[in-house]
Design goal:
extended; two-stranded antiparallel sheet; 4 strands; mainly alpha; two-stranded parallel sheet; 118 residues
């Protein structure tokens, strides 16, 4: 692979947990239309043209393929309070269990998080 997909593969190997926030395509479009019209002053036809020409194809080419690598897929995006709560709790538990080490510089810091997951 080359380009952004190869770079993502390298980044993916460094990640302890991979999340994919899955939001319905109609919801994504309606949020974008609302944002672009209200905050950016764009016209509806321009927003829709940009979405169908650039945004949707880019999502399908670069974002959607990463879903298969996710450890956790969060349906309904940010509205899924249960899933978000579970993830926050899991991260909090991991951080609570990370032992502190002396860095030799008068400061204490946590060990690399990934070391605690294996």
């Amino acid at each position: 692979s080359s380009g952004i997909n190869a770079e993502y593969g390298e980044l993916r190997q460094m990640m302890d947990i991979k999340l994919f926030v899955d939001t319905d395509s109609d919801t994504r479009l309606s949020r974008r239309v609302q944002r672009d019209i209200e905050t950016r002053g764009r016209k509806l036809d321009n927003v829709l043209t940009q979405y169908t020409t650039f945004v949707k194809p880019a999502f399908e080419e670069f974002c959607l393929p990463t879903k298969k690598y996710a450890d956790i897929i969060i349906p309904r995006g940010g509205e899924n309070k249960v899933a978000i709560g579970l993830i926050v709790q899991h991260i909090t538990d991991l951080l609570t269990d990370v032992p502190m080490i002396n860095t030799g510089r008068g400061k204490r810091s946590s060990r690399k998080l990934s070391n605690t997951l294996h």
